[in-house]
User: What shape does this take?
Amino acid sequence: MKVAVLNSGGGAWVFESLARELSRTLSRSRALGVPLVETPAERNYLFAWDGNIAPAGESFIPLSSIEVATDKRLIARAFEQEAVPCPTTLLLDETELEAFLQRESSRRWLLKFPTGCGGTGHRFIEIGDQVPADWPRPLVVQEFISMNRPEVFRLLWRGGRVVRRQRAPFLRTGALGFRSSRARRPL
Assistant: This one.
């Protein structure tokens, strides 16, 4: 049976180093090796996939788990249900947004693109700003926590426990947003 590490699509760059590491580690323990691929094999260690349906073959990580992990709307709902501490994050429809921003004008807010990672598509949102018509709804609005050196933090879980902690600096890309550095360092 052919086994592979599947890392494909627009978000694959986020998992590239981990996918390569897993491929190398598994290849050492298997005589035939476990390649890093962009098309599904019979059994897949799935890191990223852009398809509308689950990839062919079996997956060690269910696609539904990856869908939750890559959609900030689903993450916000899950965090709220589980009472996970994080910056104030809300799912709003456009009719609620303006009144919310007026009520909470003492704080800075980000409009976060609901899918993707590394700060892709995030922008500051203020009273009177227009949300693009093609922006996915509901809107993900998150409190901006100002730091001298802005960083993004990630916890990677396996079997119900944290197996890796990462942090990376955020680099400014313009007046409206950030992009994350690909350089990673342990917490």
Summary: The first strand starts at residue 3 and ends at 7.
